Amino acid sequence: RPLPGQEVSVKVLGALEDGGLVERDPRLIFVPGHGDVVEALELGVPTMQPGEVSFFLAAFPYAYGRPGSREPDVPPEAPLLFEVTLLEVRDGPDPQPLPPAVRLRLGSQRRERGNFHFARADFAAALRSYRLSLRALDGPTTAPLGPEEEEELREQRVKCLNNCAAVELKLGRAEEALAACEAALRISPDNGRALLRRGQLLAEQGRDAEAALVLRRALELDPANKVIHTELSRLAKRQSAPTNT
């Protein structure tokens, strides 16, 4: 049976109660416990042995949850029947050197899974997926990255860090959100999304002079952005307001 941290390959069919097929994947690859698949598979596949075929009847909390899904097309609160064949078990990919394209694909898959969780307001799961994506992107490769792969790696890491900042804000952790923004800006100093959020967070901390500098830089890069104009106007009003003595 799969051990913690090992990667599995499974063949999956998923059907609604009326028999309508909503999911078909001849080779789904994931690490149980990483939140990359629905919970029915997270819980069920580790009980299987290679070559085994199992059926899992999943109530909606263990499938696509209360809202359902657009892709695959699953109605709200829908239970699903999964037919799962465990094809292969192998050591997890994170500590192993991988070809650059494989490592980039792994990072992208985990980030997209984080977006799935974020859309469903499961912010803890989203943060876990984004952190796993960053770990995949930072892992060893079997060959040096080419210029295009280096650029894609930077872009993916910045996207993940910006997403981490958004999740940390949803979880009420402003300091962690600010740290994620600053990490993104160390990679891409002119990233508009990170600049705007950093400026907003600095303003919330009362660090108005720093916030104004950051927001002005964001405005230089995106002069038509109404949110930046609003934030700068708010700062200007606060700085010009008389203080009580």
UniProtKB/TrEMBL annotation:
Q: Which domain of life does the protein's organism represent?
A: Eukaryota
Task: List the InterPro entries.
Answer: FKBP4/5/8-like, PPIase_dom_sf, PPIase_FKBP_dom, TPR-like_helical_dom_sf, TPR_rpt
Coiled coil (UniProt feature): none
Q: Which UniProt keywords apply?
A: Isomerase, Repeat, Rotamase, TPR repeat
What does the record give under GO molecular function?
Answer: peptidyl-prolyl cis-trans isomerase activity; protein folding chaperone
Q: Where are the TPR repeats?
A: 192-225
Q: Name one GO biological process term.
A: negative regulation of apoptotic process
Which residue numbers delimit the PPIase FKBP-type domain?
5-90
Annotated Gene Ontology cellular component terms: cytosol; endomembrane system; membrane; mitochondrial envelope
Reactions catalysed according to its record: [protein]-peptidylproline (omega=180) = [protein]-peptidylproline (omega=0)
What's the EC number here?
5.2.1.8
* Protein's name according to its UniProt entry: peptidylprolyl isomerase
Give the taxonomic lineage as stored in the record.
Answer: Eukaryota, Metazoa, Chordata, Craniata, Vertebrata
Q: Which gene encodes it?
A: Fkbp8_1
